[in-house]
What does this fold into?
Amino acid sequence: MSNERIKPIVMPKWGLSMSEGKVTGWLKRPGDHVALGDDLLEVETDKITNVVEAGETGVLRRVLGENDTIYPVKALIAVLADPDVSDDEIDAFIAGFALPAADADADAADAAPRYLFAETAAGTIRYATRGEGGPAVLLVHGFGGDLDNWLFSIDALAESATVYALDLPGHGQSTKSVADPSLSGLSAAVLAFMDHVGLAKAHFIGHSMGGAVSMRTALDAPDRVASLSLIASAGLGREIDHGYIQGFVGATSRRDLKPVLETLFADRGLVSRSLIDDLLKYKRLDGVEDALKAISSAMFADGAQSSVLTDLIAAAKTPILVVWGEEDRVIPAAHANALGDAARVAVIPNAGHMVQMEASGKVNALLKDHIGKAA
Amino acid sequence: MSRKISMKTAINEALDLEMRRDPTVIVMGEDIVGGTGANGEDDAWGGVLGVTKGLYAKHGDRLMDTPLSESAYIGAAVGAAACGLRPVAELMFMDFMGVCFDQIFNQAAKFRYMFGGKAQTPVVIRGMVGAGFRAAAQHSQMLTPLFTHIPGLKVVCPSNAYDAKGLLIQSIRDNDPVIFCEHKNLYGLECDVPAESYAIPFGEANILRDGDDVTIVSYGLTVHRALEAATALAKDRIEAEVIDLRTLSPIDWDTIIESVERTGRLVVVDEAHPRCNLATDIAAFVGQNAFGALKAGAQMVTGPHTPVPFSPSLEDLYVPSAEAIAAAARRTLSPTGSRSRGIAA
It folds into this structure.
């Protein structure tokens, strides 16, 4: 383990509930040179299938994870090393590799609740927190989403930050009574949550409507927002696919919801049965339909976004990163350039509205870099 | 907020939440409060297996112990429903349905139709179904096909705690009579259930497992046997799609047909007796509407055409097993599959 020229590739942990994953296909072969960010293999969980990207550079010396086989999180599935490392050294590394404190980790994960609940001035807010030390980061999901939209981001960001992810009022497992369904109302709920957990200031990462909520917070309470990362954000232009909003609010069955959710991804195959089931379970809860209708009529009335914050936020002093999926079918990727020189901009190919899920490796790297520079 | 609770607790919670939400919801049945004359405090029975335990302390006289006369209290529940209440009447064992046939089939199921839509009958009749409880022939039947046969009744049979809660809430909110069938051997089974209220719409089957090789349709307890069978089949690279009907009337034909059009093979599992049951119904419907998609004859795995035996070893053989379901799936994949006779489990 001490040999720094040998780098283990392990089964990743995506999200709070993942304990194992299935290797469904390798995209690199033994002997291939691998660069940082290269697609290595595909892994399937009970929630989603996604690509594992290389976190290091080197030669793929060994592939241990066999196709169609399930491995626990953190199990060794491949070895990356420099070309001059001998086979004997690699064999010794593999022989000496233990699931890093697998038992201790599992116990710790079981002991610490996956989700926490805060009784705030805005009602019950569900949240998760990961990591210790470093800057505070707050993840704000979009319309109809919840904190699990960050399942590929939360653990990666927690390597160098204390990360909080919450469910906005009306969403996930937070309160379904939304006193004020406007951007200001949701922003006030986020501030109430920060007060509750004792967060004076945080780097905000907002997706879609959560981006607009984050911008509103930066404008209303600039001393609470250290930086903004806006992913496929609302609030940067009028256009939005109103069919998506109406379809999402109106769908009550798996059959109705599936095509709506497919709009969110460049690769429609990512919409798994489990993803649809989880959303249906949310949508069936008493109060959700009313909450979604109230929020959508406050934010997206008449088929367009009600609040465009471009001029205000461009004039603010907050460091801003804008990330978009080039194939976004909900909010056009052209909005990425709305802030001009006031923001760093990255538009990522082959990704849709859920770019933080479809290209998590690239997005996480951009987020970490932005937070690192702004901290 | 979600936590793991049993199906029994989920049913109790659904009743509690709906009684809190809607003052017209009342609960009645034999021994559902105290039992044997007890006053209904927390240590009292709360039904023969304790499903309604503790509700009396919360809702008082909106729960009532009834005399041991199904025709009287089911009739009273139907009448109360027609007059504006939303009664949930517990029949204890669905096998006792015979005593109150007229109140259900000829009265509750007919009011909306015979009074030109001017009357509605929002009554729920709950009760235990199914074998495997060592309760002998008069307390172990799966009588779901009898109820499904009758227009005007809605028939629900959940396979897990999450569905039981959401479907019972929908049953109480529904304006038609609902027969809510609880498999007694599922009461202890736990799964994640939100603490909040939620309603699962009728007529939407649940797909529990994706597969492209064979479609297995079931409901209630045998859903779990079908999943076990699917796991065994997967070891031989046979991927079964497992569909849980959840509601038998209305039934989600679209999901069944869409699946069979993809897999070309159908196994229907029904704990009920083999004649005129959900298995024959679904096999016939698919034969009529998706014949061109079928690559083999539909297979039916059911209980045998006998009363449920009291002998434990025979009773264990009565309920369709995972092995019998897997064998039926394999028959659809073999060239002679369509010629085999799969009437008994």
The mean pLDDT of chain B is 93. The longest strand of chain B covers residues 86-93.
